[in-house]
Amino acid sequence: METTNVKAYGTEAADAPLKQMDISRREITSKDIEIEILYCGVCHSDLHTARNDWGGTVYPAIPGHEIVGKVTRVGSEVSKLKVGDFAGVGCLVDSCMECKSCRQDLEQYCLTGFTGTYNGKDKHLGGRTFGGYSEKIVVDEHFVLKIPSNLDLAATAPLLCAGITTWSPLRHWKVGKDSKVAVVGLGGLGHMAIKLAKGLGAEVTLFSRTPSKEKDALDLGADAVIISTDENHMNSVKGKFDLIINTVPYVHDVNPYIPTLNINGTLVLVGYLGGLEPFLFTVPMIMGRKAVAGSLIGGIAETQEMLDFCGEHNIVSEIEIINMQDINEAYERMLKSDVRYRFVIDMASLKK
Ligand code: NAP
Ligand code: ZN
Protein backbone atom coordinates (compact mmCIF):
# COMPACT_ATOMS: atom_id res chain seq x y z
CA MET A 1 0.00 0.00 0.00
CA GLU A 2 1.17 3.49 -0.85
CA THR A 3 2.20 5.56 2.18
CA THR A 4 3.46 9.04 3.01
CA ASN A 5 6.13 9.85 5.59
CA VAL A 6 5.13 12.36 8.24
CA LYS A 7 6.89 13.83 11.26
CA ALA A 8 5.77 12.57 14.64
CA TYR A 9 6.80 12.46 18.28
CA GLY A 10 7.00 9.17 20.11
CA THR A 11 9.09 6.78 22.11
CA GLU A 12 11.13 3.65 21.43
CA ALA A 13 10.92 2.20 24.97
CA ALA A 14 9.05 2.49 28.27
CA ASP A 15 11.99 4.22 29.92
CA ALA A 16 13.02 6.44 26.99
CA PRO A 17 11.90 10.04 26.54
CA LEU A 18 9.69 10.98 23.60
CA LYS A 19 11.57 12.33 20.57
CA GLN A 20 10.96 13.25 16.97
CA MET A 21 10.66 10.40 14.47
CA ASP A 22 9.21 9.67 11.03
CA ILE A 23 6.13 7.48 10.60
CA SER A 24 4.03 6.34 7.62
CA ARG A 25 0.42 7.26 6.96
CA ARG A 26 -1.63 5.30 4.44
CA GLU A 27 -2.83 6.75 1.16
CA ILE A 28 -6.53 7.67 1.55
CA THR A 29 -9.06 5.02 0.57
CA SER A 30 -12.47 6.00 -0.83
CA LYS A 31 -13.87 6.28 2.72
CA ASP A 32 -10.92 8.05 4.36
CA ILE A 33 -10.35 11.60 5.50
CA GLU A 34 -6.83 13.01 5.72
CA ILE A 35 -6.42 15.58 8.48
CA GLU A 36 -3.63 18.04 9.09
CA ILE A 37 -3.37 17.99 12.89
CA LEU A 38 -3.47 21.46 14.45
CA TYR A 39 -3.84 20.57 18.15
CA CYS A 40 -3.58 17.41 20.19
CA GLY A 41 -4.52 17.11 23.88
CA VAL A 42 -2.31 15.20 26.31
CA CYS A 43 -4.25 12.47 28.13
CA HIS A 44 -2.91 10.52 31.10
CA SER A 45 -3.50 7.42 28.91
CA ASP A 46 -0.76 8.74 26.59
CA LEU A 47 1.65 8.56 29.49
CA HIS A 48 0.39 5.11 30.60
CA THR A 49 0.94 3.84 27.04
CA ALA A 50 4.33 5.50 26.48
CA ARG A 51 5.58 3.96 29.74
CA ASN A 52 3.82 0.61 29.26
CA ASP A 53 1.93 0.95 32.57
CA TRP A 54 -0.81 -1.37 31.25
CA GLY A 55 1.51 -3.79 29.44
CA GLY A 56 1.00 -4.40 25.71
CA THR A 57 2.62 -1.26 24.33
CA VAL A 58 4.40 -1.98 21.05
CA TYR A 59 7.27 0.39 20.25
CA PRO A 60 7.77 2.79 18.65
CA ALA A 61 4.64 4.25 20.25
CA ILE A 62 3.14 7.57 19.09
CA PRO A 63 0.51 8.73 21.61
CA GLY A 64 -2.26 11.31 21.18
CA HIS A 65 -6.02 10.75 20.92
CA GLU A 66 -7.47 14.22 21.40
CA ILE A 67 -6.99 15.38 17.83
CA VAL A 68 -8.33 18.49 16.14
CA GLY A 69 -7.29 19.55 12.66
CA LYS A 70 -8.22 20.59 9.18
CA VAL A 71 -9.36 18.27 6.41
CA THR A 72 -6.76 18.22 3.62
CA ARG A 73 -8.06 15.38 1.43
CA VAL A 74 -11.15 13.17 1.28
CA GLY A 75 -11.86 9.86 -0.47
CA SER A 76 -14.38 9.65 -3.33
CA GLU A 77 -17.17 8.25 -1.12
CA VAL A 78 -16.76 10.62 1.82
CA SER A 79 -19.83 12.71 2.62
CA LYS A 80 -19.36 13.77 6.25
CA LEU A 81 -16.76 16.50 5.73
CA LYS A 82 -15.03 18.32 2.91
CA VAL A 83 -11.57 19.77 2.34
CA GLY A 84 -11.02 22.81 4.57
CA ASP A 85 -13.48 21.74 7.29
CA PHE A 86 -12.33 21.34 10.88
CA ALA A 87 -12.40 17.76 12.13
CA GLY A 88 -11.84 15.81 15.32
CA VAL A 89 -10.55 12.31 16.07
CA GLY A 90 -10.77 10.72 19.51
CA CYS A 91 -9.67 7.37 20.89
CA LEU A 92 -11.16 5.13 18.17
CA VAL A 93 -10.23 4.86 14.49
CA ASP A 94 -11.89 1.57 13.56
CA SER A 95 -14.18 -1.27 14.69
CA CYS A 96 -15.96 -4.17 12.96
CA MET A 97 -19.19 -2.13 12.44
CA GLU A 98 -21.17 -5.39 12.39
CA CYS A 99 -21.34 -6.80 15.91
CA LYS A 100 -24.10 -6.14 18.41
CA SER A 101 -22.13 -3.32 20.09
CA CYS A 102 -21.22 -1.57 16.83
CA ARG A 103 -24.82 -1.79 15.62
CA GLN A 104 -25.87 -0.03 18.84
CA ASP A 105 -23.36 2.82 18.29
CA LEU A 106 -21.13 1.40 21.02
CA GLU A 107 -18.01 1.02 18.88
CA GLN A 108 -15.87 1.32 22.02
CA TYR A 109 -17.27 -2.04 23.14
CA CYS A 110 -16.87 -3.72 19.70
CA LEU A 111 -17.04 -7.46 20.36
CA THR A 112 -14.10 -8.11 18.06
CA GLY A 113 -12.09 -5.28 19.65
CA PHE A 114 -11.98 -1.66 18.50
CA THR A 115 -8.88 -0.15 16.92
CA GLY A 116 -7.39 2.45 19.22
CA THR A 117 -6.03 5.64 17.69
CA TYR A 118 -2.61 4.58 18.98
CA ASN A 119 -1.14 1.17 19.83
CA GLY A 120 -4.17 -0.43 18.10
CA LYS A 121 -3.79 -3.17 15.48
CA ASP A 122 -3.58 -1.26 12.19
CA LYS A 123 -5.86 -3.06 9.70
CA HIS A 124 -4.40 -1.20 6.72
CA LEU A 125 -0.63 -1.13 7.21
CA GLY A 126 -0.14 -3.92 9.75
CA GLY A 127 1.75 -3.15 12.94
CA ARG A 128 0.27 -0.64 15.36
CA THR A 129 -1.63 2.59 14.84
CA PHE A 130 0.11 5.89 15.49
CA GLY A 131 -1.65 8.69 17.35
CA GLY A 132 -2.00 12.42 17.16
CA TYR A 133 1.48 13.60 18.13
CA SER A 134 2.09 13.94 14.39
CA GLU A 135 1.56 16.21 11.40
CA LYS A 136 -1.23 14.23 9.75
CA ILE A 137 -3.60 11.34 10.28
CA VAL A 138 -5.79 9.32 7.89
CA VAL A 139 -9.05 8.01 9.36
CA ASP A 140 -12.22 6.33 8.08
CA GLU A 141 -14.91 9.02 7.95
CA HIS A 142 -17.15 7.10 10.36
CA PHE A 143 -14.63 7.79 13.13
CA VAL A 144 -14.16 11.49 12.33
CA LEU A 145 -16.16 14.09 14.29
CA LYS A 146 -17.52 17.48 13.29
CA ILE A 147 -16.34 20.41 15.41
CA PRO A 148 -18.91 23.08 16.36
CA SER A 149 -17.79 26.30 14.65
CA ASN A 150 -18.14 28.54 17.74
CA LEU A 151 -15.64 26.66 19.90
CA ASP A 152 -11.95 27.48 20.36
CA LEU A 153 -10.10 24.76 18.43
CA ALA A 154 -7.26 24.11 20.87
CA ALA A 155 -9.61 23.98 23.87
CA THR A 156 -11.93 21.62 21.98
CA ALA A 157 -9.27 18.93 21.49
CA PRO A 158 -9.63 17.51 25.06
CA LEU A 159 -13.34 16.95 24.50
CA LEU A 160 -12.40 14.07 22.18
CA CYS A 161 -11.27 11.94 25.13
CA ALA A 162 -11.63 13.69 28.51
CA GLY A 163 -15.00 15.08 27.39
CA ILE A 164 -16.57 11.92 26.02
CA THR A 165 -15.19 9.67 28.79
CA THR A 166 -17.07 11.68 31.39
CA TRP A 167 -20.09 12.49 29.20
CA SER A 168 -20.87 8.83 28.49
CA PRO A 169 -21.45 7.82 32.16
CA LEU A 170 -23.36 11.05 32.83
CA ARG A 171 -25.74 10.11 30.01
CA HIS A 172 -25.86 6.37 30.73
CA TRP A 173 -26.83 7.04 34.37
CA LYS A 174 -29.31 9.70 33.19
CA VAL A 175 -27.90 12.70 35.00
CA GLY A 176 -30.17 15.74 34.91
CA LYS A 177 -31.22 18.72 36.98
CA ASP A 178 -32.31 16.65 39.98
CA SER A 179 -29.06 14.66 40.14
CA LYS A 180 -26.30 14.92 42.70
CA VAL A 181 -23.00 14.05 41.08
CA ALA A 182 -19.50 13.81 42.55
CA VAL A 183 -16.20 13.68 40.71
CA VAL A 184 -13.02 12.15 42.16
CA GLY A 185 -9.78 13.84 41.07
CA LEU A 186 -9.42 17.24 39.45
CA GLY A 187 -7.33 16.60 36.35
CA GLY A 188 -8.18 16.45 32.66
CA LEU A 189 -11.15 14.10 32.99
CA GLY A 190 -12.26 15.51 36.34
CA HIS A 191 -12.54 19.11 35.20
CA MET A 192 -14.55 18.08 32.14
CA ALA A 193 -16.83 15.96 34.34
CA ILE A 194 -17.60 19.03 36.46
CA LYS A 195 -18.35 21.22 33.44
CA LEU A 196 -20.49 18.62 31.67
CA ALA A 197 -22.46 17.59 34.78
CA LYS A 198 -23.14 21.28 35.49
CA GLY A 199 -24.16 21.72 31.85
CA LEU A 200 -26.73 18.95 32.38
CA GLY A 201 -28.07 20.82 35.40
CA ALA A 202 -26.75 18.57 38.21
CA GLU A 203 -25.46 19.62 41.61
CA VAL A 204 -21.73 18.77 41.51
CA THR A 205 -19.18 18.07 44.24
CA LEU A 206 -15.45 17.48 43.76
CA PHE A 207 -13.49 14.99 45.86
CA SER A 208 -9.82 15.98 45.77
CA ARG A 209 -6.63 15.29 47.73
CA THR A 210 -5.37 18.73 46.81
CA PRO A 211 -6.77 21.63 48.90
CA SER A 212 -5.12 24.19 46.60
CA LYS A 213 -7.48 23.14 43.79
CA GLU A 214 -10.61 24.13 45.75
CA LYS A 215 -10.96 27.61 44.26
CA ASP A 216 -10.43 26.32 40.72
CA ALA A 217 -13.10 23.68 41.22
CA LEU A 218 -15.61 26.30 42.34
CA ASP A 219 -14.62 28.52 39.40
CA LEU A 220 -15.19 25.54 37.07
CA GLY A 221 -18.74 25.34 38.42
CA ALA A 222 -18.53 22.81 41.27
CA ASP A 223 -20.98 23.52 44.10
CA ALA A 224 -18.71 22.07 46.79
CA VAL A 225 -15.28 20.52 47.34
CA ILE A 226 -14.59 17.68 49.77
CA ILE A 227 -10.99 16.93 50.74
CA SER A 228 -10.93 13.15 50.45
CA THR A 229 -8.21 12.67 53.08
CA ASP A 230 -10.31 14.44 55.77
CA GLU A 231 -12.56 11.88 57.46
CA ASN A 232 -14.93 14.44 59.02
CA HIS A 233 -15.30 16.15 55.68
CA MET A 234 -16.11 12.79 54.06
CA ASN A 235 -18.72 12.02 56.75
CA SER A 236 -20.47 15.29 55.96
CA VAL A 237 -21.61 13.93 52.57
CA LYS A 238 -22.82 10.48 53.65
CA GLY A 239 -25.64 9.11 51.48
CA LYS A 240 -25.59 12.10 49.14
CA PHE A 241 -24.61 11.16 45.59
CA ASP A 242 -26.53 9.47 42.79
CA LEU A 243 -23.39 9.11 40.66
CA ILE A 244 -19.68 9.38 41.43
CA ILE A 245 -17.24 9.54 38.51
CA ASN A 246 -13.84 8.39 39.73
CA THR A 247 -10.97 9.56 37.48
CA VAL A 248 -7.97 8.61 39.67
CA PRO A 249 -5.31 6.98 37.43
CA TYR A 250 -3.57 4.77 39.99
CA VAL A 251 -4.54 2.16 42.57
CA HIS A 252 -6.23 3.80 45.55
CA ASP A 253 -8.79 3.06 48.26
CA VAL A 254 -12.27 3.25 46.73
CA ASN A 255 -14.03 2.20 49.98
CA PRO A 256 -14.34 5.67 51.56
CA TYR A 257 -16.50 6.85 48.66
CA ILE A 258 -19.16 4.11 48.84
CA PRO A 259 -20.93 5.46 51.96
CA THR A 260 -21.27 8.84 50.22
CA LEU A 261 -23.55 7.21 47.61
CA ASN A 262 -27.31 7.54 47.90
CA ILE A 263 -29.44 4.34 47.91
CA ASN A 264 -29.19 2.93 44.34
CA GLY A 265 -26.19 5.15 43.70
CA THR A 266 -23.32 4.14 41.40
CA LEU A 267 -19.61 4.83 41.57
CA VAL A 268 -18.21 4.51 38.06
CA LEU A 269 -14.50 3.93 37.61
CA VAL A 270 -13.05 5.53 34.49
CA GLY A 271 -9.46 6.09 35.66
CA TYR A 272 -7.63 3.15 37.12
CA LEU A 273 -7.32 -0.14 35.19
CA GLY A 274 -6.37 -3.03 37.45
CA GLY A 275 -7.01 -4.79 40.74
CA LEU A 276 -8.34 -2.68 43.61
CA GLU A 277 -6.24 -2.44 46.75
CA PRO A 278 -7.37 -2.51 49.48
CA PHE A 279 -10.16 -4.82 48.26
CA LEU A 280 -13.71 -3.56 47.91
CA PHE A 281 -15.79 -3.93 51.10
CA THR A 282 -19.24 -5.14 50.06
CA VAL A 283 -21.31 -4.33 53.16
CA PRO A 284 -22.11 -0.68 52.32
CA MET A 285 -22.91 -1.72 48.74
CA ILE A 286 -25.32 -4.48 49.77
CA MET A 287 -26.92 -2.33 52.47
CA GLY A 288 -27.93 0.30 49.93
CA ARG A 289 -28.14 -1.43 46.55
CA LYS A 290 -25.07 0.57 45.55
CA ALA A 291 -23.01 -0.30 42.51
CA VAL A 292 -19.41 0.01 41.42
CA ALA A 293 -19.17 0.14 37.64
CA GLY A 294 -16.72 0.92 34.86
CA SER A 295 -17.00 2.88 31.62
CA LEU A 296 -14.83 3.28 28.52
CA ILE A 297 -14.81 6.50 26.45
CA GLY A 298 -18.00 6.64 24.31
CA GLY A 299 -19.29 5.72 20.85
CA ILE A 300 -18.99 7.95 17.81
CA ALA A 301 -22.65 9.10 17.79
CA GLU A 302 -22.41 9.88 21.51
CA THR A 303 -19.16 11.78 20.94
CA GLN A 304 -20.87 13.92 18.29
CA GLU A 305 -23.79 14.47 20.69
CA MET A 306 -21.32 15.66 23.36
CA LEU A 307 -19.53 17.99 20.93
CA ASP A 308 -22.84 19.49 19.79
CA PHE A 309 -23.91 19.93 23.43
CA CYS A 310 -20.61 21.69 24.14
CA GLY A 311 -21.19 23.92 21.11
CA GLU A 312 -24.66 24.88 22.39
CA HIS A 313 -23.47 25.47 25.97
CA ASN A 314 -20.06 26.94 25.09
CA ILE A 315 -18.17 24.28 27.01
CA VAL A 316 -14.48 23.69 26.33
CA SER A 317 -11.48 22.49 28.32
CA GLU A 318 -9.19 24.67 30.45
CA ILE A 319 -5.87 24.31 28.69
CA GLU A 320 -2.19 25.09 28.80
CA ILE A 321 -0.75 25.13 25.28
CA ILE A 322 2.68 23.54 24.93
CA ASN A 323 5.15 22.89 22.14
CA MET A 324 5.68 19.32 21.00
CA GLN A 325 9.26 19.51 22.28
CA ASP A 326 7.95 20.11 25.86
CA ILE A 327 6.09 16.81 26.08
CA ASN A 328 8.50 15.01 28.43
CA GLU A 329 8.31 17.83 30.95
CA ALA A 330 4.51 17.86 30.58
CA TYR A 331 4.39 14.14 31.48
CA GLU A 332 6.44 14.80 34.64
CA ARG A 333 4.04 17.58 35.63
CA MET A 334 1.06 15.31 34.95
CA LEU A 335 2.54 12.73 37.33
CA LYS A 336 2.63 15.43 40.03
CA SER A 337 -1.04 16.35 39.32
CA ASP A 338 0.30 19.73 38.22
CA VAL A 339 -1.93 20.29 35.18
CA ARG A 340 -4.56 23.01 35.06
CA TYR A 341 -6.30 21.22 33.51
CA ARG A 342 -5.16 19.81 30.18
CA PHE A 343 -2.00 20.22 28.18
CA VAL A 344 -2.67 20.74 24.49
CA ILE A 345 0.14 20.52 21.96
CA ASP A 346 0.27 23.20 19.29
CA MET A 347 1.25 20.93 16.43
CA ALA A 348 2.75 23.82 14.44
CA SER A 349 5.71 23.43 16.83
CA LEU A 350 6.51 20.06 15.24
CA LYS A 351 7.43 21.86 12.02
CA LYS A 352 10.12 23.90 13.81
P1 NAP B 1 -4.88 13.59 35.14
O1 NAP B 1 -5.12 14.82 34.37
O2 NAP B 1 -3.50 13.24 35.55
O3 NAP B 1 -5.85 13.66 36.45
C1 NAP B 1 -5.93 12.66 37.41
C2 NAP B 1 -6.29 13.29 38.77
O4 NAP B 1 -6.46 12.23 39.71
C3 NAP B 1 -5.21 14.16 39.36
O5 NAP B 1 -5.29 15.49 38.93
C4 NAP B 1 -5.45 14.03 40.86
O6 NAP B 1 -6.49 14.92 41.26
C5 NAP B 1 -5.97 12.62 41.00
N1 NAP B 1 -4.90 11.67 41.36
C6 NAP B 1 -3.75 11.42 40.70
N2 NAP B 1 -3.03 10.45 41.31
C7 NAP B 1 -3.76 10.06 42.36
C8 NAP B 1 -3.57 9.09 43.37
N3 NAP B 1 -2.47 8.31 43.40
N4 NAP B 1 -4.52 8.95 44.31
C9 NAP B 1 -5.61 9.73 44.30
N5 NAP B 1 -5.85 10.69 43.35
C10 NAP B 1 -4.93 10.84 42.40
O7 NAP B 1 -5.40 12.31 34.35
P2 NAP B 1 -6.59 12.21 33.25
O8 NAP B 1 -6.04 12.49 31.90
O9 NAP B 1 -7.75 12.94 33.74
O10 NAP B 1 -6.86 10.64 33.26
C11 NAP B 1 -7.32 10.01 34.43
C12 NAP B 1 -7.31 8.50 34.22
O11 NAP B 1 -8.35 8.14 33.32
C13 NAP B 1 -6.03 7.94 33.61
O12 NAP B 1 -5.70 6.71 34.25
C14 NAP B 1 -6.40 7.66 32.17
O13 NAP B 1 -5.65 6.63 31.60
C15 NAP B 1 -7.83 7.25 32.36
N6 NAP B 1 -8.68 7.37 31.16
C16 NAP B 1 -9.69 6.47 31.01
C17 NAP B 1 -10.56 6.58 29.96
C18 NAP B 1 -11.70 5.62 29.82
O14 NAP B 1 -12.26 5.52 28.73
N7 NAP B 1 -12.13 4.95 30.86
C19 NAP B 1 -10.39 7.59 29.02
C20 NAP B 1 -9.38 8.50 29.22
C21 NAP B 1 -8.53 8.40 30.29
P3 NAP B 1 -6.48 15.68 42.70
O15 NAP B 1 -5.22 16.46 42.73
O16 NAP B 1 -7.71 16.51 42.61
O17 NAP B 1 -6.61 14.62 43.76
ZN1 ZN C 1 -7.51 9.72 26.74
Descriptive report:
This protein is an alpha/beta fold and 352 residues long. The protein has 2 domains: 3-161 and 318-351, Quinone Oxidoreductase, Chain A, domain 1 (Alpha-Beta Complex); 163-294, Rossmann fold (3-Layer(aba) Sandwich). It contains 10 helices and 17 strands. The strands form 4 sheets. Strands 3, 4, 5, 8, 9, 16 and 17 form a 7-stranded mixed beta sheet that branches. The protein is globular and about 60 Å long. It starts with a strand and ends in a 6-residue tail after the last strand. The chain binds NADP nicotinamide-adenine-dinucleotide phosphate (NAP) and zinc ion. The site of zinc ion (ZN) has 5 residues, from loops.
Short key terms for the protein model shown above:
2 domains, globular, binds NADP nicotinamide-adenine-dinucleotide phosphate, binds zinc ion, Quinone Oxidoreductase, Chain A, domain 1, six-stranded parallel β-sheet, Rossmann fold
Largest sheet: 7 strands, mixed
CATH topology of the largest domain: Quinone Oxidoreductase, Chain A, domain 1
Any guess at the CATH architecture of the largest domain? Answer: Alpha-Beta Complex
Strand tally = 17
- The amount of beta strand, in percent, is 25-35%
What ligands are attached or bound here? NADP nicotinamide-adenine-dinucleotide phosphate, zinc ion
Radius of gyration: 20 Å
Number of helices: 10
What is the element string, with H for helices and E for strands? EEEHEEEHEEEHHEHEHEHEEHEHEHE
CATH superfamily of the largest domain: Medium-chain alcohol dehydrogenases, catalytic domain
Assembly state here?
A: single chain
What is the overall pLDDT average? 98
What structural category do the secondary elements indicate?
alpha/beta
